[in-house]
Design brief:
InterPro entries: F-box-like_dom_sf. The protein is mainly alpha-helical. The protein folds into two domains: about 60 residues; about 90 residues, no CATH class. The protein contains four helices and two strands, in the order αααβαβ. It has a two-stranded parallel sheet with strand order 1-2. Strand 1, helix 4 and strand 2 form a beta-alpha-beta unit. The longest helix is centred in the N-terminal third of the chain and has 53 residues. The radius of gyration is 36 Å and the shape is elongated.
Amino acid sequence: MQPHLMSTNDPPSEESMREIRALMAPSLREIAQTRLQIASLEAQLRTLKEHCTALEAPLHEYRAILSPIRRLPNDVLCEIFYHCLPTHRNSILRADEAPLLLTRISNRWRSLALSSPRLWAQLYISFFDLQRKKTFEVLTQRAEVVKDWLGRSGTCPLSISI
C-alpha cells in the first residue's frame, strides 16, 4: 500500500486497493460474526425476558394474597373506611366514591362497608343532573337508593344535604 494515501486524497492504485481490501477482510469477517453473535444473544435475551414475564404473572396474585391489608382486623378496616369518606361535603350517590366504592373491592370489604352504619350516616342528594323526560323514573330510582342508604345508617345521627 502506498503510505501517502492515508494523508492525501490521491486515488489508490489497483495494487493498493487489493492490499487495502485484503487488510480489511479479516475485520469485516469478524464484524459479521460479532453481529451474528449479537443477534443470537438478543434473541436469547428476548426469550429470557418472556420467560421472566411468564414467571412473574402468578406472583402478582400471590402478592395480593399475602398483602398485609388482608390481615387487618375488621374494626381497623372499618375505621380506615370511615376516613375514606369526603371531609369537605357529605357523601354522594356515586359508585366511584366512598362509601359505594368500598363495596366494589371484594366480598369482605362489601360486607364490612354495608354493615358499618357510620359510613352511611351522611348523604348529599343532587337533583341538578335530572333530565326532564326521565325525571319521574330517576326520582323513583333515586328514592330507592336513598332509602337503602339511610337504612344502612342504623341509629347513627344523620347529615343530609340536598
